Amino acid sequence: MGGSKYERRTSLTAPGIQSYTWRTERFSRVRATVLYSDVFEAGGYKWRAIIHPRGNNTDYLSIYLCTADSASLPDGWSSYVEFTLKVVNQIEYKYSVTKVAKHKFTKLISDWGHKNVIPLGILFDPSRGYLVNDTLVVEIEVTYSEDEKDTAAHLRNGIMQERLKKDWEVKKLKNKEKEDAQLYTIIKVIRDEDLAEQIGKDIYFNLVDHGKVRSFCVQKQTSFNVFKEEVAKEFGIPARFQRFWLWAKRLNHTYRPFRPLTYIEEAAPVGQFRDVFGIHIAELELFLEVERGPDLRPIAPLKKRKDDILLFFKLYDPERMELRYVGRLLVNCTDKPSQILTKLNKLAGYDPDEEIELYEEVFEPNVKCLPVDMKLTFQESELENGDIICFQKDSSMDIVKQIPFRDVCSYLEYVHKRYPYVASSFEYVHNRQVPFCHPGIEFEDEDSSEEDSEDEDSSEEQNENITAEASHYEGTSKANASKPTKLS
Q1: Which one of 39, 283, 399, 434 has the fewest CB atoms closer than 10 angstroms to its CB?
Q2: Was domain 191-430 assigned CATH 3.10.20.90?
Q3: What are phi and psi of 188, to 5 degrees?
Q4: Is pLDDT at 279 greater than 80 in this prediction?
Q5: Dist. CA 97–CA 88, nearest whole Å
């Protein structure tokens, strides 16, 4: 589970109420799409919580309660449960995000919860207090009764009065959450340093794990040029030396930088990018291109001509079986790879005349490398902004040496087969809404009522469920997971 540790604490807070605390350390480094808590008991039955760290096909943290042993339960079993799911604010507890639900659990419908608990952008912002020391704390309270009659009894005592008070607090926090979402945009800034730190360690395919880069929470009316000044303070890169590239999803489902921002876009508010793509974007991802002089100090970006493309380069060392990021180049699409060999040797620290081989990292549909034809231009090889070139010393030079994976193609194939869970940005793209860069496709904002209706649980069993809130995002984890990601 991505190296996370789990610590649980259960206690009876009141008759019929069982509380459970689940702590997940190193939460931002968790790679699993689903996490399961330890088993705890309430009402004589075993339960566990489910978390989708990157959301269940949504840009929110998703949390559910489920029976831990549904397969062993007798046919016809049911249990009516009221429960709360709380993401604890570890700085100010009163700002903890709480979701309340009621559900009649059966052998067939064994889990229930909330798809949209807290926006991921707010969750992963350490200043908000929900991730402190990269630790997530979730509290679950389960009020158990055999049937609706028992619940009616609870209504007659002080426990439900306390519940009503909590419901009111939840609604207030929910309204504040919505207001924040309307006012702010989350901007993730990806830098060369991120690629160098992650490639060959955390990831091997694609460029970066977007969950491990610096995020900024920016008011939507803020000018992008003002945001650049904040970036200058954070990274020590003067605003005049910054060039930002928009990331977008491509036809092969890769997610890459595809064009730089224009001067007009940089003069406008950061909330403009919904209009740029014609779709709703919960988070904006940008690549920060910074050129450095001989003294490694930032300098003005290279002038980008119309035919220039931005390529990224990984170096493979067969003897060490090591893959690492070495940099990027702005090249003219009418040039040939043979014209940049000297620059690549410099990036790798090789002699200028070292013979090297170039391979393009492609996804058709699986990850693989294809040799780059030195005789063709970049345009003829259909290379474009954001493409990845892997290179190495001429593999025929060390034919005598016993090297397990002589070229980068065989090495990446080995990594993919032996470590299929190794992170790439594929999972990130598939599990969230991102802008699409294909010029032939137009996007329109879908009617919000249609989106809400699709989020509701449409099965007949839903008529049996009694919900504590009128929420379109409450339901089973399975039902939500089956829905395709929508560009809306």
Answers
A1: 399
A2: yes
A3: -105, 130
A4: no
A5: 7
**Alpha carbon distances (Å) from 356 to 204, 351, 386, 387:** 20, 11, 21, 19
Instruction: Report the alpha-carbon distance of residue 431 to residue 435 in Å, rounded.
Output: 13
Task: Categorize the per-residue pLDDT at 346 as very low, low, confident or very high, splitting at 50, 70 and 90.
Answer: very high
Q: Compute the Cα dihedral for 209, 213, 218, 221 and give only its sign.
A: negative
Please, what's the b/e burial string for 341-369 (b: 16 or more CB within 10 A of its CB; e: otherwise)?
A: beebbebbebeeeeebbbbbbbeeeebbb
Crossing angle of helices 158-183 and 148-155, in 10° steps, is 90
CA distances from 370 to 154, 180, 225, 344 (A): 67, 46, 40, 18
Q: What distance in Å separates the CA atoms of residue 274 and residue 357, rounded to the nearest whole number? A: 41
- Secondary structure (DSSP) of 371-384: E--TTS-TTTTT--
Q: Is 324 left (phi over 0), alpha (psi -120 to 50) or beta?
A: beta
Mean pLDDT of the residues in the chain: 78
The residue whose two tokens read 């996490």 is: 35
Task: Give the residue range(s) of CATH 3.10.20.90 domains in the chain.
Answer: 191-430
Q: What is the pLDDT of residue 460?
A: 34
Q: Which two tokens stand for residue 396?
A: 């025929």
d(CA 148, CA 142): 15
Q: How far apart are the C-alpha atoms of 141 and 20, rounded to whole Å?
A: 6
Q: How far apart are CA 106 and CA 257, in angstroms?
A: 47
- Give CATH for domain 6-170+451-481: 2.60.210.10
Taking only the tens place, the pLDDT of each residue in 385-442 is 999 999 999 877 655 567 888 889 889 888 877 765 554 444 444 444 455 554 433 3
Find all residues with CB under 8 Å of 479, minimum gap 6, and list them. 457, 459
Tokens of 275: 């209009």
Question: Among 427, 445, 439, which residue's Cα sits nearest to residue 487?
Answer: 445
Residue pair 392/316 in contact (Cβ under 8 Å)? The answer is: yes
Q: Which has more confidence, 320 or 464?
A: 320
Long-range contact set of residues 145-150: C-beta below 8 Å, sequence gap at least 24: 145/16, 145/43, 145/80, 145/81, 145/82, 146/43, 146/79, 146/80, 147/78, 147/80, 148/80, 148/466, 150/80
Span 58-80, pLDDT tens digits: 889 999 999 888 778 787 788 88
CB 258 within 8 A of CB 437: yes
